[in-house]
Amino acid sequence: MPVSNWITRSRNILPIGLDIGHSAIKMVQLVIADDGMRVLASDRVPVDWDAAEGDARRRMIVSAIRQILARGHFKGRDVISAIPPDKLRITSLRLAEAEVIHADKTLRKEAAHRFGLDARVDAINYVLAGTVRQGDELKNEYILFATDDKTIKNHITLLEEAGLTPTGIDAGPCALFRNFERTMRRQEDRERTIIFIDVGHRHTIVVFGRADEICFVKQMAFGAARFAEDIAAKLEITTSDAESLRRKMRTGESVDATTRRLVVDTLHATAEQLAAEISLCLRYYTVTFRGKRVERAIMAGGGAHEATLLDVMRHHLAIDTDMAAPLQGPDLEPDKAADNLCELSSDYAMAIGLSLKGSRPSPVATPGYDSCPERIVEEVPS
Questions:
Q1: Are 212 and 166 in contact (CB under 8 A)?
Q2: Which part of the chain is CATH 3.30.1490?
Q3: Which end of the chain, C or N, has fewer beta carbons within 10 A?
Q4: CATH 3.30.420.40: which residues of the chain?
């Protein structure tokens, strides 16, 4: 997509938000201008991550990023990306009030123990999710994010090989929440809990948020690819044939009635599985944080476009469930040159949240435990 052609007296161009997905590489760059925040550029290249492994997969990702950069739509090469979901460890831990004074040391030690990490070297961060009652005692519940140092270094090397300058590395759930945090600024919104669900190709991220706080996070190895895989298994065909069959049905092409019914039933059954997992998250949250009612769910990611999933999710969750519109908000409106991005905005939710990270001031070296960590590791020196 071409760079915006509007003119303003002053503007602050944010880093590129890079979402390395299993089915597409997506990049978005935002700019803060006199009249608010706008989309400067966006682009995507489809990839088939599952078709390659190891060095071949790495070369494919690097090639896709270079292809986007070669089109010349983006300004600069500063980038913020996220740790791959399969490399990001997440857990929760409760501490008594008396333990809060030593929370940083305790949480890092516990994360290192649970994940087999070295607290002195590996990246560990955390957020305070809220206060919960455990028996007769009130405790603070924390969400821990961690990854090993080797993963960080490999990720940085990949970005540099692609011609980018990494200025920060984020945790995917934080980027997703940051995207929608801007829309929760009215007082009535700040008192509500909203579920943010990003259905990617291979993973689904679930984040419960209230005001400027993340309250619950879960990553699942269950994504949009399961729909085609389950159809393929049911009809005893390849996944590519299953995808082709779904495209025919979406475009109204002729498909025999028996096959159509099998596909519809399989899509519904698969959607039921994912909805059931998210319902368990909702049940945990309502039991843990009593009195904090969940009022709405917002779905993002490529898998959110599956109409069957949206209908099933509404039925299971029994709350308002809608498609994401991350480009809407009091300070972020799409530029006229970004009209087609509006239609795909739910796909770009993660990339937009990553670019938005560049609008925040750098955190102190020792992360606080009362807000979403601004990066899973310290800012990368240029």
A1: no
A2: 89-146
A3: C
A4: 1-87+147-183+328-364, 185-326
Q: pLDDT tens across 251-281, in order?
A: 888 889 999 999 999 999 999 999 999 999 9
Model pLDDT, residue 181: 76
Is residue 2 pLDDT above 50, yes or no? no
- Would you place residue 250 in the very low, low, confident or very high pLDDT band (cuts 50, 70, 90)? confident
Q: Is the pLDDT of residue 363 over 50?
A: no
User: Helix, strand, or coil here: 213?
Assistant: strand
Residues paired with 28 in a beta bridge: 17, 42
| Residue pair 68/27 in contact by the 8 Å Cβ criterion | yes
Q: From the centroid of its chain, how far is CA 172? A: 4
Residue 147: both structure tokens together: 């990854």
Query: Is the confidence at residue 369, as pLDDT, over 70?
Result: no
Q: Which CATH number fits domain 89-146: 3.40.630, 3.40.50, 3.30.1490, 1.10.287?
A: 3.30.1490
Topology (CATH) of 185-326: Nucleotidyltransferase; domain 5 (3.30.420)
What pLDDT is recorded for position 375? 38
DSSP assignment string, 28-92: EEEEEETTEEEEEEEEEEE--GGG--HHHHHHHHHHHHHHHHHTT-S-S-EEEEE--GGG-EEEE
User: What pLDDT is stored for residue 189 in this prediction?
Assistant: 61
Structural class in CATH, domain 1-87+147-183+328-364: alpha beta
Q: Answer whether residue 55 shows pLDDT above 80.
A: yes
Check residue 374 and give its pLDDT. Answer: 42
Nearest CA to 38 out of 78, 68, 80, 5 is that of: 5
Residue 240 CA, distance from chain mean position: 26
The answer for residues whose C-beta is within 8 angstroms of residue 190's C-beta and 6 or more apart is 184, 210, 211
Helix (H) or strand (E) holding 196: strand 193-199
Taking the C-alpha atoms of residue 25 and residue 22, their distance in angstroms, rounded to an integer, is 8
State how far the Cα of 204 lies from the Cα of 302, in Å rounded to an integer.
10
What pTM was computed for the model?
0.86
- Segment 84-139, tens digit of pLDDT: 999 999 999 999 988 888 999 999 999 999 999 999 999 999 999 988 888 788 89
The CA distance from 231 to 347, in Å, is 23
3-state SS, residue 194: strand
